Please model this.
Amino acid sequence: MHQPSPPFDAQAARRLREGLGMAHGHVAYGLRAQYGVFATPETVLAWERGRAVPSEQELTALAGVLWCSPAELIAAASTLREHRVARGLAPEELARRVGLSAAAYQRMEDEGRWRGTERQTAALAEVLGLGPRALITATGGDERLAELLRDAVTTRWQAYVKPVVRTVPLPRRTVESALQRLHTEYHARMAAVSSWGASGTTGDEGRAYLDEVVGHFWAAVGP
Model:
C-alpha cells in the first residue's frame, strides 16, 4: 500500500544544511554514499523549496546526512506513522517494543486505527513519547472522543465518565472535573444566549461549542 510522505519541514532542512556548510551536491552525495539513496542536487533543492517531498526512507537518510533526528525534519507529526518516523523507528522495531507482530502493527498503521490492548497502548505511548492528546489523535480516537463529549455536555455528564476514561489515558478525577466544567460552560452559554431572545442564535452558539468540544476538553484537562 502506498503511504503518503511525512509532513516535511523544508525550512528546517535548509537551515540544518546551511548550518553544516553543505551544498546541495554534498547532501546528495551523502545520501548516495552513506545510505544508498539516489537523489540529485536538484532533488535536494526541490525538497527545500517545497516542490517535492522526501519519502520515509529518504527523510530518514536525510536526517542522517544532516546530523539531526528525523523529528527535526517533520513539520507536525500526528499519525502513528509520522510519530514512528520522527523517532527513527522501523515498523518491525516498534511492533516488537509494544508487543505486537510486525504484520499486525503494520495493518493498524496503514488503516489508521489502533486496536492494541491497554498494556500495548501504554507501551506505544512510552516508546513514541506521546502525551494523552497526541496518543488519542495518533491512534484514531478523536472521533470517538468527540462523540462521547458531545453527549456528555448535552445530557448527564456523570454517565460518560467511565466511557471517557476508557478512551483517554487520564485519571478519573481529571475526567470528572473536565466533563463537569464543559457541561456547565455549555449550558451557561445556551442560557445566556436564550435570554437575549435572538432567533436562531441559540442553535448556532450550541453547535459552535460542540464543534470545538474536543479542544474545550483538553483545555479543561490542562497541560
The chain has a mean pLDDT of 90.
